[in-house]
Amino acid sequence: MTGDSWTGEDVIERDDLETGARIFVALHSSRLGPPTGGTRMKTYPDAGSARRDAMRLAEAMTYKWAAADFARGGGKAVIAVPPDLEASAREGLLRRYGRLLSELGGRFYTGGDVGTSSSDMDVIAETGTPYVFSRTPERGGAGGSGSWTALGVFAAIETACERLFGDPSPRDRRIVVQGVGNVGALLIERLAAAGARVAAADPNGEALGRLRERLGIEAIPSESGLEAPCDLLAPCALGGILNAETIPRLNTRAIVGAANDQLAGPEEALRLRERGVLYAPDFVVNAGGAVAITGIEALGWGADRAEAAVRGIAGTLRRVFDLAESSGVSTDAAARRLAEERLRRGTDPQADGR
Ligand code: NAD
Questions:
Q1: For residue 208, what are the contacts with CB-CB under 8 A and spacing of at least 6?
Q2: Which residues are catalytic?
Q3: CA 179 / ligand 1 centre spacing (Å)
Q4: Rounded CA gap, 133 and 226, in Å?
Q5: What atom in ligand 1 is closest to the CA of residue 184?
Q6: Are 6 and 59 contacting, i.e. CB atoms less than 8 angstroms apart?
Q7: How far apart are CA 134 and CA 139, in angstroms?
Q8: How confident is the model at residue 354 (pLDDT cuts 50, 70, 90)?
Q9: Residues lining ligand 1, judged by CB closer than 6 Å?
Q10: What is the number of other CB atoms lying within 10 angstroms of the CB of residue 86?
Q11: What's the whole-model pTM score?
Q12: 161 alpha carbon to ligand 1 midpoint, in Å?
């Protein structure tokens, strides 16, 4: 997506004079429901790249909700902060942001993302704004989304195993996980419990060492995380990792992970197909956190209902693989086609996950 080709509805911008931060709330689509997406807080090289990031991520949310068949729209907020922002100034910024959400009056709902936590959502909610999800359980929220996202990735891995090996179980499959943060570590726990042979890469040697001790997984150097031989690679760290330079070096049968924006561009999906690597589109695989948290907090779901909805990612992914096969397109193109069909159908009051 470039700034010129963006098809979204609005971008609200606000300068926070007290801190020098700039806030961008990108509303991409309200076709299926109110735009809903995380608030990312980080330092950007300039305001233009922060704005573009918000727009790109909001568009990705439109596809994520539509592919998950969930009645929410695509939106995302970016708070571009100066590198030296102090904790006390940060809290004031979050409160002013909370008031901005109230001013928007439900045009945008948000939760945690890169650089923001459930505790930050508590601070935002203290302003009285009702448009915030993923507060801590102590404050009545559903907490962070990492465990739900990991569950969705696990269900997607089972689907990929079923497609490749005729058996959904990851038992005895060698699975390399890139990144052992919130999602990666919880995914590794599930994989280890299911009997997979797990290897993991992360520059954070401490976090990796703890997992190796606790679960007996293999630690591999972070620079070789992508090319290590395996049955299945689970990127759970960075975006843009699948590109013209890395794809020829891959040593895996499938890619199924949580990281957003894994493909450097749409042509990479074809490159993967030509190499015979089964790619599970990231926006289908990593929707579990968004679906569960929004379902629990906005629709009053219990944990069982949330788990069933997140496990539904397996069925969506099967449809994506089938459509890619029958139409001769990449799995990424097939997933986009399914999401666009859903967007064309418009609002369906029954649609709140499966
Ligand atoms: P996180 O920040 O907790 O963890 C990321 C981990 O990746 C860190 O441990 C970091 O050290 C590691 N890392 C950085 N560079 C690396 C490299 N070159 N090789 C290997 N590891 C590297 O993030 P998270 O919440 O676990 O999310 C992981 C990814 O999934 C991100 O791309 C995020 O946008 C995406 N995602 C997360 C959620 C969620 O619910 N948390 C939902 C959807 C998508």
A1: 180, 200, 201, 202, 219
A2: 76
A3: 6
A4: 34
A5: 26
A6: yes
A7: 10
A8: very low
A9: 114, 145-146, 149, 178-184, 201-204, 207, 222, 225, 236-239, 258-260, 286, 289
A10: 10
A11: 0.95
A12: 23
